[in-house]
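Lab channel / #folding
Pinned by the channel admin:
"Please post every new chain as: sequence first, then the structure tokens as a reply. Keep commentary short and put observations after the output so the thread stays searchable."

First post following the new format, from NK:
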Amino acid sequence: MSEQDTSRTLPAPPTDQDLVRLIEACSTVNGIAIEPGWQDQVQAHLKVAFAMAALVEREDLPDQAEPLPVFAP
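Reply from TO:
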């Protein structure tokens, strides 16, 4: 059995300025006002979300992989 190269080139994580622009654009499009005091918390949440997405993207799953319909411990 041969080993497959599972390394993937992932995009760089967004910069703080990228996140600020994303928050501004999304809040404008959705008509949601983000209070200045919440900007840092929203930005921190997005950093975690991007990090979690990178973990998933790093895995090389076959095309036939399907999620389980029900969680069973």
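NK: The chain has a mean pLDDT of 85.
TO: also worth noting, DSSP finds two helices and no strands in the chain.
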